[in-house]
Write a structure and sequence with these properties.
The chain is mostly helical and 30 residues long. It has helices at 2-6, 12-18, 20-24. It is built from three helices and no strands.
């Protein structure tokens, strides 16, 4: 549910660049 609130389902890589922490927590954006 966290990724949906941050809009990762829409901006895959865009969110990763803005929030590197999410990328490090298991590549949710990918």
């Amino acid at each position: 549910a966290g990724k949906r609130g941050r809009g990762l389902h829409k901006k895959g890589k865009g969110a990763e660049k803005l929030r590197p922490s999410l990328k490090a927590r298991g590549n949710i954006g990918k």
